[in-house]
Amino acid sequence: MDAAGKVVAEYKFPLNQIRDFLQYVGFNNIPFDHSAAALSYYLNIFYPADNPFKDDELGYYRQREWRLISNEFQIKNRPIARNLSEAESAELEEVDPLFWRRELTIDGVQQRRSALAQVYDPEPGWSIFDAVDRVIGPKAAMDRIQAIVGPGVAVDPLE
Description:
Number of domains: 2
Distance between the termini: 43 Å
Strand order of the largest sheet: 1-2
Helix content: 25-40%
Radius of gyration: 20 Å
Oligomer: single chain
Largest sheet: 2 strands, antiparallel
């Protein structure tokens, strides 16, 4: 579809090709929902950097964060993402109130963008800072950044 919602291309597949495709992605007894979630995960990684319909400052970077993990992917029958608690939503909204408090309608339900945010949480007790070695930020924010990331992560000024 184009920006006006007009269909610009349509594709038809014979039923036997769809069956063959589903058998292929389910090869070697991989559960189909796992394969579909993995495919969704990888599709969410790719997103255009420019928005030709709206000039939203930092919109691409803000949106990419939530798009990256938005799917039903599970590890050991545990979702890799969870919804934010009320306290986490409130804290997130304080970071950028205009962006995170914006009301969106998804599947006919209107809610704040922060209510749609999720946290990558692959296992209990996991912290993003377990995977971070170094953070680069503004010189004026060095102390605040270090307080957030903890002593195990190097914090360097942006040059």
